[in-house]
Amino acid sequence: MSAKVTISYERTEELRAVLDRLGPMVRSYKVAKMQRGRFKKAYADLDADKLGRYRPVAPGFPLKNDV
């Protein structure tokens, strides 16, 4: 099972920092070809089996196992 994530960033260092934090969960990523506007986009494919039980950023956000 996998999850797809869109990452918006302004500088390449920001993208690198996000990918470092996601670490071993990232199967692959792709930088969008059309980069217009203030923010650039990249798309990451995450391996959901490696997600584990990370707590979400927003408190009170239900996880699948919590429901």
State the helicity in percent bands.
10-25%
- Average pLDDT works out at 80
In order across it, which strands form the biggest sheet? 1-3-2
- Helix and strand element order: EHEE
User: The biggest beta sheet, please?
Assistant: 3 strands, antiparallel
* Count of helix runs: 1
- Could you say which overall geometry the principal axes of the C-alpha atoms support? globular
Query: How many strands appear in the DSSP assignment?
Result: 3
N/C terminus separation: 20 Å
Regions with little confidence, pLDDT below 50 for 5+ residues: none
Structural class: alpha+beta
Percent of residues in beta strands: 25-35%
Radius of gyration, Cα only, in angstroms?
A: 14 Å
Walkthrough of the structure:
- This protein has 67 residues and is an alpha+beta fold.
- It is 16% helix and 33% strand.
- It contains one helix and three strands; from the N terminus they run E-H-E-E.
- A three-stranded antiparallel beta sheet has the order 1-3-2, covered by helices on one side.
- Strand 2 (26-31) and strand 3 form a beta hairpin.
- The longest helix has 11 residues, at 12-22.
- The mean pLDDT is 80.
Secondary structure elements and their pairing?
Elements: E1 2-9, H1 12-22, E2 26-31, E3 40-47
Antiparallel strand pairs: 1-3, 2-3
